[in-house]
Write a structure and sequence with these properties.
The complex is a heterodimer of chains A (549) and B (239). Chain A is of the alpha/beta class and 549 residues long. In chain A, strand 6, helix 12 and strand 7 form a beta-alpha-beta unit. Helix content of chain A is 43%, strand content 13%. In chain A, the strands form 3 sheets. Chain A has a 5-stranded mixed sheet with strand order 10-9-13-11-12. A 4-stranded mixed sheet of chain A has the order 2-1-3-4, covered by helices on one side. The radius of gyration of chain A is 25 Å and the shape is globular. Chain A is built from 23 helices and 13 strands. Chain A folds into 4 domains: 93 residues, Glutaredoxin; 201 residues, Rossmann fold (3-Layer(aba) Sandwich); 84 residues, Ubiquitin-like (UB roll); 103 residues, de novo design (two linked rop proteins) (Up-down Bundle). Chain B is α+β, with helices and mostly antiparallel strands and 239 residues long. Chain B has 2 domains: 75 residues, Ubiquitin-like (UB roll), CATH 3.10.20; 149 residues, Alpha-Beta Plaits, CATH 3.30.70.20. Chain B has 6 helices and 10 strands, in the order ββαβββααββαββαβα. Chain B is globular. The chains are: A alpha/beta (549), B alpha+beta (239). Chains A and B meet through helix 18, helix 19 and helix 20 of A and helix 2 of B.
C-alpha cells in the first residue's frame, strides 16, 4: 500500500458510508455476546431485509459501548440513539424506530453521566467501527499515524513525541513510556523485539480484552510505530487463551494488515519491515510479569527472573525487548496524530491522558469507562457509576486487583492518578475497580485476593510460595472466628516479609489487599478475633455455644 | 590491545574490599570471609535468586537485593547481617520447615544438611507457622538413587546441574505455587528415564536429603560436590 492508496481507501469508505441513511451498530464484544447480541444482530438484519431497507440501513457488529451490565447494547447513527437490554424480539420495533420515533422503553438516555463524563481516546472507535474490517478503521483515520511516522518522522522524533505526551505504562506500574522506548532504542543489539502484554488477569478487569475485541488495529498500529521507534523487526502479542474472541479478532486484524502491507516487509514502500505473531498464554497470572512473559514466549516455564538486567537491555532470547501493555500501545496512534502536547493537556501534572477502568461490584452502572486522569473516585463511583444500588452505604473501592488495595470513604475526593493512589496504599494497576458497600466484609475481601495470589504464585521463591499460603491460612482462621491477636501479629509480620523479600511483583504486592484493609478497617479484623463476629454478616462464624458437641 | 579489567571498590559490612567488574556481591563477600547464607545458589550453576536468603541491604537502594545475582558497583555500601535481614532469613527458614516434612532425626543427611546447618546458625529454635504435613511421594525407582519429595525445598539445583553441567535435563518443575514439585522427564518414575545418565550430580548438589544414594542409613549420606569447581575450571569458566 502506498500513501495515495490509503487516502483513496479512506475516500471510498466514506463515500460508501454516505450511501446509507442510518447505521445500526450492535455491540459484539464478549459482554454483549453473553447476552445474546449475535442473535439480536441477526434479527435486526432480518427485519431490515423484510422491510426492504437494505440499501438505506446498514447493520454492523461493533465493539464495546461501555454499559456492559445493560447489554445487549445498540447504537444508532446518525441519530445517536443508544438502546439497551435489547432482545431479538425487539428487532422489528427498532427498525421501525428508524422511520418513526425511537422505541421508548429501550432507549438508554445518552445524556446520563455515564456517557457524558467519559473522555475517549483509547476507546474512541469502540462502538462505531467493525473490529473485523480494517477498512472501517482506516476510514476513521486509522494507520494515518503510522503513515506519518514512516514518511515524515525519524525514530528519535517519534520517541520525543511520546516523551512529550507524558504517557505512562498502563499495565499498572506507570513507568514513563517515552523513557522505556528510548532505553530500548539505545540498547545494543542486532535484533530487537516489541512485545504487547495482553495477559490481563486481575479479577474483575477486562479493559485489554475489550480494546482488542473492539479496535484491534489500533494496538497493531501502536506496535508498528513502537517498532519503528526502537528499531525492532519482530513483535509478539502475548494474549491469554481465556480470550478466544480477542485472539480471533487479532488474527483477522493481523491478516488484513499484512494483506494491505501495513504489516510485513517494506511497509508503505519504505525500508522498514515488521512482523507480528500471536503467542497464547496457558492461563498463568504470573505470565503478566514481564520476565515470566518472556520466558513463556521462549517456550520455557513461565517464571520470573531477578531484574536487572531489564528486558530493555536483555529480553527475549537475550535481545533488547520493549514490553508495553495493550492500552499503552492503543494510546500511541492518537498521540502521533494529535501531537504529544495535545495528550499532555489531558490529566494531571504527573499522570497524563485517560485511563480505562472496568467498573464492577456494588454500583448501579457496571461496565467499561474511560476517564481523564485526575477525576475523583467520587465522580467515578457516584456520577458515572450511578452510586450504590438499593440505597446501601458505600464502604470502599478496590483498585489494582490483587496487587492493589481498598480505598475507604474518606479518600473519595482523591484525584485518580498514579501517585495519589499509591499514597493511600493502593495502586493504579491495570484498571480493575471494584466497589464495595456495607454488605462486604473487608477481611473476606482480603482473603479472596490472597487466595488468588496463593494459587497464582509460580512457586519459584519461598516467601511468595509458602508465605501466601500461610497468609491465607491465617486469614481463614480470622474469618472462621478461631484466630487470636497473636495470629494477627504473625499475619502482619508475614505481610512485611512477603512484601520485602519476594522475587517479583506478584509476591511483592500480594500483601497489599491485607495491608490496606488493616490500615483502614482494622476494627473489622478485631471484631472477628475479639468479638467472634463478622460486622457485615458475611463470614460464617459460629459461636462456641452453637457448635454441636 | 588487551581489554582493561576494571576494579571496583566497595564496603561490605563496613569492611573495604575490592572486586572485579562483573563479580557479584556474594562472590566478593565470600572472598573476604563473609558468608552470606543461601540455599539455591551454588557456584558453578547459573544463579536464580529464588531462595531469598542472600538478600542484602545496599545503601541508596529502595529494596533488598539478592547478593547472588547483584553485581558490584563502585562505592556500594553493603550490609549483609542487619537485625532485619536476620529476622527475614529466620522467617524464610520457618516457612521452609512448615512447608514439607523435614524430620532431621530420621534423615539420611542429618548432620550434613545445609537447611539444618543454616537453621542452627541463624538460631531457628521453633516454627510459628502450623506445619502443613503434606502427603508427598518417594520415588525409589532408580537403581542407585532415590528422591524423597518430603525433604525437597525446590531450590532447583538438581534441575540446573542436570541441564547445565550434565546436559541431560532429566529434572524439571511441575505445578505452581505451593503445589510445585520436582519431576523426572514428563513426571515419569526416575528409574524409567531414558535420558538419565545416572551420573549422580543431582544427588550431590541437593542441599537436603531429598535426593540421596540408596543404602545409606540415617546421617550416613554426605554430599561431595568437588566435581563442580573442577568441571567449571576445566570448561574454562572462572571459579
Amino acid at each position: 500500500m502506498t500513501v495515495d492508496e490509503l487516502q483513496q481507501l479512506v475516500a471510498k469508505e466514506q463515500e460508501a458510508k454516505q450511501r446509507y441513511k442510518s447505521c445500526i451498530n450492535v455491540c459484539v464484544a464478549t459482554g454483549c455476546i453473553m447476552c445474546d447480541s449475535e442473535r439480536v444482530k441477526e434479527a435486526i438484519e432480518e427485519a431490515v431485509k423484510e422491510r426492504g431497507l437494505e440499501k438505506e440501513v446498514i447493520v454492523k457488529g461493533v465493539g464495546c459501548l461501555g454499559l456492559c451490565s445493560a447489554g445487549p447494547m445498540i447504537y444508532v447513527e446518525p441519530e445517536g440513539i443508544i438502546y439497551h437490554k435489547v432482545s431479538p424480539e425487539d428487532a422489528p420495533a427498532i427498525v421501525q424506530g428508524l422511520i418513526s420515533t425511537p422505541v421508548e422503553r429501550l432507549v438508554c438516555p445518552s445524556e446520563m453521566p455515564f456517557f457524558k463524563r467519559q473522555v475517549k481516546i483509547v476507546m474512541e472507535n469502540s462502538g462505531t467501527i467493525d473490529p473485523e474490517r480494517i477498512e472501517d478503521y482506516i476510514a476513521v483515520g486509522g494507520y494515518q499515524a503510522l503513515m506519518k511516522v514512516l514518511t515524515e518522522m525519524s525514530p528519535s522524533e517519534v520517541i520525543e513525541e511520546v516523551t512529550k505526551s507524558g504517557l505512562r505504562g498502563r499495565g499498572g506500574a506507570g513507568y514513563p513510556t517515552g523513557l522505556k522506548w528510548s532505553t530500548v532504542a539505545k540498547a545494543n543489539g542486532d535484533r530487537k523485539f516489541v512485545v504487547c502484554n495482553a495477559d490481563e488477569g486481575d479479577p474483575g478487569a477486562y479493559m485489554d480484552r475489550t480494546i482488542l475485541e473492539s479496535d484491534p488495529h489500533r494496538v497493531i498500529e501502536g506496535m508498528v510505530i513502537a517498532a519503528y521507534a526502537v528499531g525492532a523487526q519482530q513483535g509478539y502479542i502475548y494474549v491469554r487463551a481465556e480470550y478466544p474472541l480477542a485472539i480471533k479478532r487479532l488474527r483477522t486484524a493481523i491478516r488484513q494488515a499484512e494483506r494491505l502491507n501495513l504489516l510485513g516487509n517494506n511497509i508503505f514502500g519504505t525500508t522498514f519491515s515488521f512482523h507480528i505473531e500471536l503467542r497464547i498464554g496457558a492461563g498463568a497470572f504470573v505470565c503478566g510479569e514481564e520476565t515470566a512473559l518472556i520466558a513463556s514466549i521462549e517456550g520455557k516455564r513461565g517464571t520470573p527472573r531477578p531484574r536487572p538486567p531489564y528486558p530493555a537491555e536483555y529480553g527475549l532470547w537475550g535481545y533488547p525487548t520493549l514490553i508495553n501493555n495493550v492500552e499503552t500501545f492503543a494510546n500511541i496512534p492518537s498521540i502521533i496524530r494529535n501531537g504529544g502536547d495535545w495528550f499532555a493537556k489531558i490529566g494531571t501534572e504527573k499522570s497524563k491522558g485517560t485511563k480505562v477502568f472496568a467498573l464492577a461490584g456494588r454500583v448501579v452502572n457496571t461496565g467499561l469507562i474511560e476517564v481523564p486522569m485526575g477525576i475523583t473516585l467520587r465522580e467515578i463511583v457516584f456520577e458515572i457509576g450511578g452510586g450504590i444500588p438499593e440505597g446501601r452505604k458505600f464502604k470502599a473501592v478496590q483498585t489494582g486487583g490483587p496487587s492493589g488495595g481498598c480505598i475507604p470513604e474518606q479518600f473519595l475526593d482523591l484525584p485518580v492518578d498514579y501517585e495519589s493512589l499509591t499514597k493511600v496504599g493502593s495502586i493504579m494497576g491495570s484498571g480493575g475497580m471494584i466497589v464495595m458497600d456495607e454488605t462486604s466484609c473487608m477481611v473476606d475481601v482480603a482473603k479472596f485476593f490472597v487466595e488468588f495470589c496463593m494459587s497464582e504464585s509460580c512457586g519459584k521463591c519461598i516467601p511468595c510460595r509458602v508465605g501466601t499460603y500461610h497468609m491465607h491460612e491465617l486469614l481463614s482462621r480470622i474469618t472462621s472466628g478461631i484466630a487470636t491477636m497473636r495470629d494477627l501479629e504473625l499475619l502482619e509480620e508475614l505481610c512485611d516479609l512477603v512484601k520485602n523479600t519476594s522475587l517479583c511483583g506478584l509476591g511483592q504486592t500480594a500483601p497489599n489487599p491485607v495491608l490496606s484493609t488493616l490500615r483502614y478497617f482494622r476494627n473489622e479484623y478485631e471484631a472477628h478475633i475479639l468479638d467472634k463476629s463478622c460486622p457485615s454478616g458475611v463470614c460464617p462464624i459460629r459461636r462456641l455455644e452453637e457448635v454441636p458437641v | 590491545m588487551r581489554a582493561p579489567v576494571r576494579i571496583k571498590t566497595l564496603t561490605i559490612d563496613g569492611k573495604e574490599v575490592s572486586a572485579k567488574e562483573g563479580e557479584t556481591i556474594w562472590q566478593v563477600a565470600r572472598e573476604n570471609g563473609i558468608d552470606i547464607p543461601t540455599l539455591c545458589y551454588l557456584e558453578g550453576l547459573s544463579p536464580v535468586g529464588a531462595c531469598r536468603l542472600c538478600l542484602v541491604e545496599v545503601k541508596g537502594a529502595n529494596r533488598l537485593l539478592p547478593a547472588c545475582v547483584t553485581q558490584v558497583e563502585e562505592g556500594m555500601e553493603v550490609t549483609t547481617n542487619s537485625e532485619r535481614l536476620v529476622n527475614y532469613r529466620r522467617m524464610i527458614l520457618e516457612l521452609l520447615f512448615s512447608e514439607r516434612n523435614h524430620t532431621c532425626s530420621v534423615c539420611v543427611v542429618n548432620g550434613h544438611c545445609e537447611l539444618q546447618r543454616l537453621a542452627q546458625r541463624l538460631g531457628v529454635t521453633h516454627v510459628r507457622f502450623p506445619y502443613r504435613y503434606p502427603d508427598l511421594p518417594v520415588d525409589a525407582s532408580h537403581e542407585r538413587f532415590a528422591i524423597d519429595h518430603n525433604r525437597c525445598i525446590l531450590c532447583t539445583r538438581c534441575v540446573r546441574v542436570c541441564d547445565e553441567i550434565e546436559g541431560a535435563h532429566v529434572w524439571d518443575v511441575m505445578g505452581r505455587g505451593i503445589k510445585s514439585q520436582i519431576i523426572a522427564d514428563l513426571n515419569q518414575p526416575w528409574g524409567t528415564s531414558d535420558v538419565c545418565t545416572s551420573c549422580g550430580k543431582c544427588v550431590h548438589v541437593c542441599p537436603t536429603g531429598a535426593i540421596f544414594e540408596k543404602g545409606k542409613a540415617v546421617a550416613e549420606m554426605e554430599k561431595r560436590r568437588q566435581f563442580l569447581p573442577y568441571l567449571t575450571i576445566m570448561r574454562g569458566g572462572k571459579q
